[in-house]
Every structure is written in structure tokens, then in C-alpha cells.
Write a structure and sequence with these properties.
Layout (H helix, E strand, L loop, with lengths): L16 E3 L2 E6 L5 E3 H14 L2 E4 L5 E6 L5 H9 L16 E2 L14 H12 L13 E4 L21 E9 L11 E8 L4 E8 L4 H18 L10 H18 L6 H5 L3 E3 L12 E4 L5 E6 L5 E2 L1 H14 L3 E4 L5 E7 L3 H10 L12 E3 L13 H15 L3 H5 L8 E4 L13 E10 L2 E10 L8 E6 L4 H19 L1
Parallel strand pairs: 6-7, 7-8, 17-18, 18-19
Antiparallel strand pairs: 1-2, 2-5, 3-15, 4-5, 4-14, 8-9, 8-11, 9-10, 12-13, 13-16, 15-16, 19-20, 20-21
Helix pairs in contact: 1-7, 3-4, 4-5, 7-8, 9-11
Bound molecules: iron/sulfur cluster.
Iron/sulfur cluster binds next to loops.
Length: 486
């Protein structure tokens, strides 16, 4: 099997995307769930390739700096472990995103893991889906404490999927006495960095067929409307051309159980918004009374091979031989007997991992220089320097934030494409080139966001060296303001 190296293709495992520091490879992990054995195999690959691995903002794994093609044996091993599609043509499609605490969250309405498996199976068995843009994406939210749907009041928690199903509680009593569940999934459609809510509620047992119909019509649209710029048309183009109503009419025509007829008369109430952006970090009780899970921040989402291997081993020793990646570039170790948590924390410390909220958890950076040719700046290096600085000068700051009211998210991006975080940030550093003493040097424009727009107001342009202290001042002011508001 040859590596399908192509320019301008979203990276997958079979499509290594050339970057300045080597090839970029992505491994899909539907729902972000990794078995210990899978983690071990990826760590072995990392040993061979001697590169960096990062959890992405879709909760999959991205390996940078790969210098040589994976071997046929590598591909076969990863396929056997369920880490590579049996059909390479669909492997580069986006990971299915799910609530990272599915099945362990005492507040969740439904455990979404089975549905995610079914949907992934559907994708694996329908190679025609490869005709969609690689940005085709599905998100499933189980309605628990850690949401990936549209219900969060915290802007940066939003994750934009082209098809988003979010569990909600519904009232069947009056209108649908024969309905089988008090639960439904509300459909939202992802447009241009935003989600368009619909009034469509889907019974859990119909999710697969509805998603299949949404995909068929989307495929029809893409085939009827080839793009003019060489890139495939996306859901945002479909929604712009047709609007939601026409799209759903076409979807209805594909279904035996038309959407409107089944659910329009049911009443439903939205869930309380998720209030705590870091609520999954640290140690938490699971819905299984005797068990706990541990949420671990990672510096800029990065893991070493030893940490990856170690997480697998600790999950075997203390938990259920499984760990989870989150869309916030962090890791969760589930199913730990409560009495074993202190021992686990000691072992994690020896891997350089600790539970709790630090500045590493709130700073996001794209690949930047030297990995990405479009980048004006070394965002990863600057992100790490900024995290260290804030940890030193504002060590207590996030302690307050973990309880809630003003979440802080800092995003460093090497260009305005914002690959690392499409959702709004409170503070954004946008890489640029500036003139200083007649010379062109690297710098940043610093923006404050307003919860809807990241780049709402520009407050500074200049070299990075001046930015950490500037941000510390801004954060201190924000904190004072929020205390005065209380
Ligand atoms: S945001 Fe721009 S600079 Fe950063 S990785 Fe994406 S394309 Fe490259």
C-alpha cells in the first residue's frame, strides 16, 4: 500500500500532508476514546518516527514531523486495532466528536458511545462519503455536564460540526403516547463558524437513518454543484444556497418517518447551559457510585510517547484499559475506583501529568512555524512561554475561574485561518510581520473578544516579548471588574 501523499488534502493516516517540519498525519479516534493497546501502538509509531503528537480540537491525534511513510505493516496493525479505516479513501474525514464523559457522567441524558460507533460504522461502510469535503463532521452531545453541543453559554466551548445532534428531554405524555423514549436529539447544522439550530427532534432509534438521509442529500448537492475553486462545496455552501428549510424538505423525502410529522407536536425544554468551562478537569465522581474520573490538562495538547504509553498502562492498572481525548486537547482517565485515585495521581505525576486547572489548560495554539508555511510566528513556542509566565505571575487566577463566571481562553494563531480554534476566544494573538527600526520582524496583533467575535477590538501590535506582561495586566483588570460586578 502506498502513502497517498497529495498537496492540499486534509491529513489522515493514509494522506500524509507535507508541512515544513515533515509530514502531518492524523489518526481518527471516534468519540475520542482510546483503548490502552491502541495507545501503546501509537506510542511505538512515535518511537520510530521521533516526532510530536497532539490531541486536536476534534479529539483525535495528530502526529507532526513524520519523515517517512508508514510501512504496510504499520497500516495493517492500525487497521486491525481500529485506528485506521479499512477503506483508505474515507480515513481523512473528520473525527466524530462526542461528549468525552459519555457513560460516566451522572448528569447525562444518554450514553452516546453506541450511537457514535454506529455512525462511524456507517461512514466506514459508505465509501461514497469520500466525495464530501474532508471538513464533513458530526458531533453527538449526550446532554451531560460536559457539552459539545449548542447549549453552552461559554462561547469557546462551542464546537462547530456540520451535523450536530444534542440530546434533550422531551415530554411525550400528551402528544405522542406511543413514543418509546423521553429523550430526543435536537438537530443543528454547521454553517460558517456557527451552528444553525433547527426545530427538528429525532428519536434515538432514528438518528442513524436521519444522518444517512442528511448525508445523501448533502452528497447530491455537492455533485450537482461542483465548486469553482477546486475545493469541494461544504455544508455552509449548501445552507447558503438552499437554506435549512429546503435542505430538510429534501431530507424528508428520503425518510420513511418524515421529521416534521413525527416530532413537531412534542414539547421539549432546553437543558441548562454548561456553566464551568474546566469542569471536567481534576477528580470527579462518576455515575457509577464507586468510581471516579480524572481530567488532565496537556500543554498545548501535546503528549510524549512515554506519556501515551504510560496512560495506557495506568488505565490497565487502575481503570478500564481505556482513556479519552477531549475536544479541548486534554485527556480523561475514567473508571478509577475512588480509593485508588491517590495512587493514580502519584503515578501520573511521574509521567509529568497532573490533574487540575493550570494555564496549560486555557492556552491553545495552532501548529505555527516551523510546521506551517502560512504562519507568521512560532505560535507553539510562544504559547508555552506565555503559559509559564502566567503560571508564575498569576498562579491563583484560574482557581477562581474554575468555579466559573468569566472563562478565559487565549488563542495564538499564526494566520487568520484559526485552525486550532474556530470558536471565539477572549484573547487572541494573531501572528503578523511588523516593522521595527527599519527591519521586518515577527510579532502579533492582540485582540479582545466579546464572546461572539474573537477579533472584536485590537489592543496591541508588537513583538511577542511585550505580550505576556500585557496579558497578565489585562487578566488582572478583568478579574477586578468581575469582582466588582458580583
Ligand atoms: S492557523 Fe494558519 S498558521 Fe496556523 S496552522 Fe492553520 S494555516 Fe497554519
Amino acid at each position: 500500500m502506498n502513502w497517498l501523499v497529495k498537496e492540499n488534502v486534509c491529513p489522515g493516516l493514509f494522506y500524509g500532508t507535507p508541512a515544513q517540519d515533515g509530514f502531518l498525519v492524523r489518526i481518527r479516534t471516534p468519540g475520542g476514546i482510546l483503548e490502552a493497546q491502541q495507545g501503546r501502538e501509537i506510542a511505538t509509531l512515535l518511537d520510530q518516527w521521533a516526532t510530536t503528537i497532539q490531541v486536536t480540537n476534534r479529539a483525535n491525534l495528530q502526529i507532526r514531523g513524520v519523515q517517512e511513510s508508514p510501512t504496510l505493516a504499520n497500516f495493517q496493525t492500525l487497521q486491525k486495532l481500529g485506528l485506521a479505516a479499512s477503506n483508505p479513501s474515507i480515513d481523512h474525514l473528520r473525527n466524530i466528536m462526542g461528549s468525552p464523559t459519555a457513560g460516566i457522567d451522572s448528569q447525562e441524558l444518554v450514553d452516546t458511545r453506541e450511537l457514535i460507533k454506529e455512525l462511524d460504522n456507517f461512514i466506514q461502510n459508505h465509501p461514497e462519503i469520500a466525495a464530501l469535503s474532508p471538513k464533513f463532521s458530526i458531533g453527538i452531545d449526550g446532554g451531560g455536564a460536559v457539552g459539545i453541543g449548542t447549549r453552552s453559554s461559554v462561547a469557546w466551548e462551542h464546537r462547530y460540526n456540520e451535523i450536530q445532534l444534542s440530546a434533550i428531554a422531551v415530554n411525550n405524555q400528551q402528544n405522542q403516547p406511543n413514543a418509546t423514549s423521553n429523550l430526543a436529539f435536537r438537530l443543528a447544522l454547521g454553517g460558517d463558524k456557527q451552528l444553525e439550530q433547527t426545530d427538528i427532534l429525532i428519536a434515538p432509534e432514528n438518528c442513524l437513518s436521519v444522518v444517512a438521509a442528511l448525508v445523501i442529500v448533502y452528497l447530491d448537492y455537492v455533485q450537482q454543484n461542483p465548486s469553482i475553486n477546486g475545493k469541494k462545496n461544504r455544508m455552509k455552501h449548501l445552507l447558503k444556497d438552499w437554506g435549512v428549510e429546503k435542505y430538510l424538505e429534501q431530507v424528508n423525502s428520503q425518510l420513511n418517518h418524515p421529521l416534521e410529522q413525527t416530532f413537531s407536536s412534542r414539547s421539549w425544554s432546553p437543558l441548562e447551559p454548561t456553566a464551568q468551562p474546566y469542569s471536567y478537569l481534576g477528580i470527579h465522581d462518576q455515575k457509577q457510585a464507586e468510581l471516579a474520573y480524572v481530567g488532565l490538562p496537556l500543554r498545548l495538547g501535546k503528549l510524549t510517547a512515554d506519556q501515551l504509553r504510560g496512560l495506557g498502562e495506568l488505565s490497565e492498572t487502575f481503570g478500564s484499559s481505556q482513556f479519552r481525548l477531549t475536544p479541548w486537547q486534554t485527556v480523561i482517565l475514567p473508571d478509577i475506583p475512588k480509593e485508588k485515585v491517590p495512587d493514580l495521581l502519584l503515578k501520573l505525576a511521574s509521567l509529568g501529568l497532573s490533574a487540575g486547572v493550570g494555564w496549560d489548560a486555557v492556552i491553545v495554539a495552532c501548529a505555527g512555524k516551523p510546521g506551517c508555511g502560512r504562519s507568521a510566528t512560532a505560535t507553539q513556542i510562544h504559547g508555552a512561554i506565555l503559559a509559564d509566565y502566567l503560571q508564575q505571575v498569576l498562579p491563583e487566577y484560574l482557581g477562581d475561574r474554575s468555579t466559573g463566571n468569566i472563562p478565559v481562553n487565549i488563542h495564538l494563531t499564526g494566520c487568520d485561518k484559526s485552525c486550532a480554534q474556530p470558536s471565539p476566544a477572549e484573547i487572541t494573538l494573531l501572528g503578523t510581520t511588523i516593522e521595527q527600526n527599519g527591519e521586518l520582524i515577527e510579532g502579533y496583533k492582540v485582540y479582545l473578544g466579546d464572546g461572539k467575535q474573537s477579533l472584536k477590538s485590537q489592543i496591541f501590535t508588537g513583538e511577542f516579548a511585550k505580550i505576556p506582561s500585557l496579558i497578565a495586566k489585562i487578566l488582572t483588570t478583568l478579574k477586578v471588574d468581575s469582582q466588582q460586578d458580583e
